[in-house]
Design goal:
331 residues; alpha+beta; Nucleotidyltransferase, domain 5; four-stranded mixed β-sheet
Length: 331
Amino acid sequence: MFVSLQFKLELKKEDKEKLIKLMRKQSSVIRVAYNMLKELEKEKTKNPHAQIYQRLRQLFPELPTKYIDSAIYKAKQYPTDKPVVFGGKRLFEKLCENHLSGKTREKLKKQWRELRQGTLISIGSKADKGNRLMRFEDLNGQLHLRITTGNREFIYAKVLREPSNSKDKWLTFMTMLLESWQTKSYFAYTVELKLREGEFYGSVSFELPMPKVRYTKENGVIAMDTNASPIHLAIAEVSKTGELLSYQTISLHHLLGLSQNSKDHQEWILAHQIVDLAIQKGKAIAIENLKKLKRGSRGDGKATLRKRLHHWNAKKFMQKLKRVAMLKGWK
């Protein structure tokens, strides 16, 4: 099953200008590719992709070749049996109306130009570490999108995206990314960027794996509990008859002073660490009921406890842990 997820990008001013220039160039390639497709379709040419690719390389020699391939892929998504207005037919017709003038006309014109010239797409590939030209990378504990602008020339855009709930597929995507970085076993994902009202938005499309359930509580469980003083995770290995087989703790103190993005990254690593332990033991994972987690109340003399729990969002971590476990074969 393929899914598509949305996100927003944050760039430096000089990088924005580079990205807009690149978008305009590939948008032109898409339009040229579309017109070629229509002509070759009329001629019933065999293998039109190869002919279009060679011609576009001659017309746009400075553009990385993968952007040309991706532009042809995008052009094929438009119908060739009826007229296509790049930038939107409705906006174009409004701009043709004589009564429009001033700020209203300029606003519509800007919208039309962004739709017509504000597209950048790169098709993913396993062989290219997921995506050759637009690749997600971790920089100092924060997720960035590395965008190729030329021959070994890159700009980095900070990815602004938080999961909306525990079922948000963004959690799955982050799990898959971290797994691919650690194991060097990559998966393909396609990235498409759009310019809208001066801001940059993106979508990433990838195939969602559907693993078979391999681990159940029939062999016992790895039970996990959150403790606040000192703040740590207590992990117990329990047999199917309820006997304690082993016990260990993992300190969370190192997470308290981190930024949110760095903390998220470390929590993903911790989630993988716990799931890998469960795989090693061949057991299911049992987590505590967070609704029963005692945080205390004002005036009870437990201000330090509440401060620690404020810096450790157990619910968010459990969401990450569940997502990693599901991808690796747990119910």
